[in-house]
Design brief:
- With 195 residues, the protein is mainly beta.
- It contains 3 helices and 13 strands; from the N terminus they run αβββαββββββαββββ.
- It is globular.
- The protein starts with 8 loop residues before the first helix and ends in an 11-residue tail after the last strand.
């Protein structure tokens, strides 16, 4: 059996992190937190996932429910207030966090589609559609991944300066925020419980 080629660290990190197109089916403020939304998100898995995000007061519910979102799907589930959150929604934010916008895939995207890199820089192939294993927090893949995520001057979402796209090739975008950091919206709240 052939050994898999050794990837540079930046590409190994991307290949381990599983971003998926999702649709928020339900979104409600958490009764015990001024900041947290509880969301049911369809990732094409048969059952929607329960995901929490610290976007209450930052993004209106009707905006959460319109269009598709991007979910970091293979993070270790963590407790948020009183429930386990199984993933995180990606957002762009201004430096002072006064403006936060959902990262959106283009119209016509498919629920459950895994996010790719334009030009397939990882061995010239798309990353596989099969789900990745849940990340081991000790290996810090998520932190290294998020460090390299930002929007460019066209508001396109990029990793290591390469645009993120769906398998059909449409690029992911923030509505109005160029050249800013992209992160998981859980980071905008202090309500996260200990893991």
């Amino acid at each position: 059996m052939e050994e898999a080629p050794k990837l540079d660290e930046v590409w190994e990190v991307y290949s381990k992190c599983d971003l998926r197109v999702g649709k928020i089916l339900e979104c409600e403020p958490h009764p015990d937190s001024a900041h947290v939304y509880r969301e049911k998100i369809d990732l094409g898995e048969g059952e929607p996932r329960l995901i929490g995000s610290g976007l209450n007061g930052k993004i209106p519910i009707d905006e959460m429910l319109s269009g598709y979102v991007i979910v970091f799907a293979n993070l270790k589930p963590r407790k948020l207030v009183d429930f386990m959150s199984n993933g995180m929604v990606l957002c762009a934010s201004s430096e002072d966090k006064s403006t936060i916008e959902l990262i959106r895939p283009p119209e016509g995207s498919k629920i459950g589609d895994r996010v790719q890199l334009v030009g397939n820089p990882i061995l010239g192939q798309p990353v596989k559609q099969a789900p990745e294993e849940v990340l081991n927090p000790k290996k810090k893949y998520a932190e290294r991944f998020l460090d390299s995520l930002k929007t460019n001057d066209k508001c396109e979402a990029t990793y290591n300066d390469i645009a993120l796209c769906t398998s059909e090739g449409g690029v992911l975008k923030s509505k109005t925020l160029p050249n800013v950091h992209i992160s998981c919206c859980l980071l905008y709240t202090s309500d996260a419980a200990d893991e």
